[in-house]
Amino acid sequence: MIFLKQEDTYKHKGMRAKLIDELRKKGISNEEVLSAIMKIPRHFFLDPAFDKIAYQDRAFPIDEGQTISQPYTVAYQTMLLNVKSNEKVLEIGTGSAYQASVLAALNAKVYTIERQRKLFEKNIKSYPLKEQYKNIKFYFKDGYQGLITEAPFDKILITAATAIIPPVLIEQLKLNGIMVLPLGQEGKQIMTRITKLEHEDLQIENFGDFSFVPMLEGKN
Ligand code: SAH
């Protein structure tokens, strides 16, 4: 399947503005993150059948049994990552490329890895914002291996549930770099922020409970 050409109408922009209000009420206060979310037409990343509900604060199914994250989750992870212009950000779990687009709207240099060939190819063929965002590179790989050719990264964002902190990804993080990941077993994970300190020390902070699809090994 490829992305169909969709339009971003006033109606969509209006629904998006309402979503932003909802995220604010739920405690997302970072204006840069909110304005990045306002810039990205989420309905472009969903099947046209979802057009009218694309701006509900919910996860939705995409191909290959995967999901596009809930906007609140995207906002929350992005806020914890504290992305600055021109930082190199590695995302594990491209999925629909919605989260990657929010990172691109923050002017990060985005490298995003997906293990499902079909999802990867869809983005290669028809990523819907290719004219606006040249700062995203897509890779078909196992995220547990990271991306040695582009390492080290300022920030790493994992958007699938992992029961362990992947050691290779810690290696590929710069000193004082930050990794955000949902840590835990299938079902429920704790949003975790790791800051890489000197002497291989890690500062680990825990945030709320979230639920992601699992981070699986290998490619498919
Ligand atoms: N960030 C996505 C949502 C991700 S859902 C979005 O904005 O739409 C999680 C994604 O992680 C799925 O597409 C899944 O296939 C992918 N994934 C799972 N394990 C992976 C791994 N080891 N490496 C790369 N991607 C992985």
Compact summary:
By secondary structure, the chain is of the alpha/beta class. The protein has helices at 10-25, 31-39, 71-81, 98-105, 117-126, 167-171; strands at residues 60-61, 67-68, 88-92, 109-114, 136-140, 153-158, 173-183, 189-196, 202-210.
Count of alpha/pi helices = 6
Helicity, as a percent range: 25-40%
In this entry the ligands are: S-adenosyl-L-homocysteine
Spell out the helices and strands N to C. HHEEHEHEHEEHEEE
User: Per the principal axes of the C-alpha atoms, what is the gross shape?
Assistant: globular
| Total number of beta strands | 9
How much is the radius of gyration in Å?
16 Å
Mean pLDDT: 96
Helices, strands, pairings?
Blueprint: H1 10-25, H2 31-39, E1 60-61, E2 67-68, H3 71-81, E3 88-92, H4 98-105, E4 109-114, H5 117-126, E5 136-140, E6 153-158, H6 167-171, E7 173-183, E8 189-196, E9 202-210
Parallel strand pairs: 3-4, 3-6, 4-5, 6-7
Antiparallel strand pairs: 1-2, 7-8, 8-9
Helix pairs in contact: 1-2, 2-4
The structure holds S-adenosyl-L-homocysteine (SAH).
Residues 66-69, 92-93, 95-96, 98-99, 113-116, 119, 142-144, 159-160, 213, 215-216 line the site of S-adenosyl-L-homocysteine (SAH).
Fold and architecture overview:
With 220 residues, this protein is of the alpha/beta class. 27% of the residues lie in helices and 25% in strands. The strands form 2 sheets. It has a 7-stranded mixed sheet with strand order 5-4-3-6-7-8-9. Strands 1-2 form a two-stranded antiparallel ribbon. Strand 6 (153-158), helix 6 (167-171) and strand 7 form a beta-alpha-beta unit. Helix 1 (10-25) packs antiparallel against helix 2 and helix 2 (31-39) crosses helix 4. The structure holds S-adenosyl-L-homocysteine.
